[in-house]
Write a structure and sequence with these properties.
Layout: E1 10-13, E2 24-28, H1 33-43, H2 54-57, E3 68-69, E4 77-86, E5 99-110, E6 113-120, E7 123-129, H3 139-145, E8 160-161, E9 164-165, E10 167-172, E11 178-185, E12 191-192, H4 203-214, E13 239-240, E14 243-244, H5 246-258, H6 270-277, E15 280-282, H7 289-292, H8 301-304, E16 308-311, H9 312-320, H10 327-342, E17 366-367, H11 371-395, E18 398-399, E19 408-418, E20 424-428, E21 439-440, E22 470-474, H12 476-484, E23 508-512, H13 514-536, H14 539-542
Parallel strand pairs: 3-21
Antiparallel strand pairs: 1-4, 2-4, 4-11, 5-6, 5-9, 5-19, 6-7, 6-8, 10-11, 12-18, 13-14, 15-16, 15-17, 19-20, 22-23
């Protein structure tokens, strides 16, 4: 038999001290904000800046006039407040005993859409379209109320819209009228991980990124300008008797430095590895006379098969097998130094021969390539970059609150109370009782930052006492390096100890003077600021120095 429950008429309204029709949003600048709020309620100090005046100070967003809420990082804390009454004549305060729980949700308002921060089994899913109907944000409560699930004894992992608690505070106004306030801390942190990365990127921006990435290599491995997509005879020999072309050098640099192609255990390289295994190095000196002048094409490639020496992938694999002594990595580093010295790769003459995979001598083999091979390499490089970006975005914690033009937020409160039959009902704040629209500051927003006092040491402190500030446990080889550093020489190759063999030294503990470390850090900071000012011209925004009297008690 179905029994209709008579709902007790409730209403959420702005707190009695609030001017205007929206719920209260208060800012405090110290960590004791909860006690401060209760104290302000008790003393009826409703004209303090934390109640309303602060909102005018925080309208500094370049995207609109909404106030920008600072983060706890800025030593700012916000409290949400509203009042719950019985929705009948006189609007008497609801008995706190009838309140089973209360809370609020944060909604994102973007492009005419209202979005809710959703959780599934306690894990954040991110912003999703908010439900149009007013229902319980807790999925488990909602289903139980509908009779779909039986109540369970153990605490289920939360699923539904993220809820922040509101606490009950019974107070009275100047006329001694009782009010039931709901208040709670507004957390402005949080992050989530993308589950479906297939839709992670903006399609237009993704296409532009792919175009930029393709232009990082010259033809035939990329589309860098100036571009002539004609397949030339020289393109079929990117490595001729051990000497790599400049285009092949850039390809090798990308394959080795970015993707570590040839290193064991990188599953993401499987497709590129498979392609590299299909490319072969030949010894031109062993080719018969009839093939030495023969062009390498789709038709003639079968004639060269009997003279294969090793695959391109086996060469890379053998290089990486030597670990830190990888001869190809050392060769690339050396060429980078030469290129920097001459002013760019285009100003460099022919490159020296590639090293043998064992690190002894130079390679004298030739890599033969088809136009179809080059085309496949271009496609695979583009796909590898896309896969790498998607794998990165899966691991990156994305912030809950962003600072783009469409990132505007609003608070919606609700209360759960027992009706006359003792059953729980939920009442949401109506559109007029929601909070003001607001934005959230970025961690390094200069307009949201507050002064942080750092006491610099006096020069008289630099030669006092023992060096017993910061202590570091130092392995034997690192301690040996530190001891060999000379002020007038710095570090050289002779300074660095060979770490390949066993180390029988003892570890050391080194203590440094905190005043010295602090002063050195400040000196280095000022040097770097002055040097980079040549590029950024930022001094008027970097430092302000004012004469400052001593504070009493110093």
């Amino acid at each position: 038999m179905k029994i209709e429950q008579a709902l007790h008429p409730l209403k959420l309204k702005p707190p009695f001290y609030q001017e205007g029709g929206q719920c209260g949003l208060h800012r405090y600048l110290d960590a004791e904000f909860i006690n401060r709020f209760k104290q302000d309620m008790q003393r009826r100090q409703f004209d303090l800046p934390q109640f309303n005046a602060w909102q005018q100070e925080e309208r500094h967003s370049r995207h609109g006039q909404q106030p920008v809420l600072r983060l706890p990082l800025h030593r700012a804390f916000h409290i949400v407040s509203c009042e719950v009454v019985c929705d009948r004549f006189g609007e008497p305060a609801l008995d706190p005993q009838k309140i089973s729980s209360a809370g609020f949700v944060i909604r994102r308002l973007s492009g005419g859409r209202e979005q809710a921060w959703m959780l599934e089994d306690g894990e954040a899913l991110g912003w999703q379209d908010a439900p149009s109907e007013l229902r319980d944000p807790d999925l488990h409560r909602r289903l139980c109320a509908n009779g779909v699930l039986h109540k369970r004894d153990d605490q289920a992992a939360y699923s539904g819209e993220e809820v922040h608690p509101l606490h009950v505070l019974k107070t009275s106004d100047a006329n001694r009228k009782t009010h039931t306030l709901l208040f709670g801390y507004l957390p402005l942190g949080g992050f989530y991980y993308l589950r479906d990365v297939s839709q992670a990127f903006d399609s237009t921006d993704q296409a532009q990124t792919a175009s930029v990435a393709a232009a990082m290599l010259p033809w035939p491995f990329g589309y860098r300008q100036p571009l002539n997509q004609t397949w030339l005879a020289e393109h079929s020999k990117p490595v001729a008797q051990g000497v790599a072309s400049k285009a092949c050098f850039e390809l090798l640099r990308m394959l080795v430095n970015r993707y570590h192609l040839g290193e064991a255990g990188i599953a993401e390289n499987a497709v590129l590895e498979n392609k590299a295994q299909q490319l072969w190095l030949y010894d031109e000196a062993k080719l018969p006379a009839g093939l030495q002048g023969q062009a390498y094409t789709e038709i003639s490639q079968g004639l060269f098969a009997a003279y294969r020496q090793q695959s391109f992938y086996s060469y890379l694999q053998a290089c990486f097998a030597l670990g830190g002594e990888n001869p190809l990595v050392r060769w690339l580093i050396l060429q980078e130094q030469v290129i920097d010295a001459v002013g760019g790769l285009d100003k460099l003459g022919a490159l020296p021969a590639l090293p043998n995979a064992n690190g002894v001598g130079n390679l004298n083999l030739t890599l033969l390539l088809l136009a179809a091979d080059a085309q496949e390499i271009r496609v695979l490089l583009g796909q590898r970059l896309s896969d790498q970006a998607l794998s990165k975005v899966k691991e990156i914690p994305l912030p809950k609150f962003a600072q783009n033009a469409g990132d505007v937020y609003q608070i919606v409160a609700f209360v759960r109370a027992k009706n006359d039959q003792g059953q729980e009902q939920i009442q949401w704040a109506n559109a007029d009782t929601r909070s003001i629209h607001f934005r959230v500051a970025a961690p390094f927003d200069p307009d949201a930052s507050r002064p942080a006092l750092i006491q610099m040491p006096s020069l008289a402190d630099l030669r006092r006492g023992l060096a017993k500030g910061a202590a570091m446990i130092t392995p034997a080889d690192t301690f040996d390096l530190m001891n060999k550093l000379k002020l007038n020489k710095g570090a050289s190759e002779d300074t660095v100890k060979d770490t390949s063999g066993p180390d029988f030294g003892i570890q050391w503990i080194c203590s440094f003077s905190l005043p010295v470390i602090t002063l050195v850090a400040m000196i280095l900071l000022m040097i770097m600021i002055s040097l980079l000012n040549i590029v950024f011209f930022w001094l008027p925004w970097v430092r302000i120095c004012l004469p400052f009297p001593k504070i009493k008690g110093d």
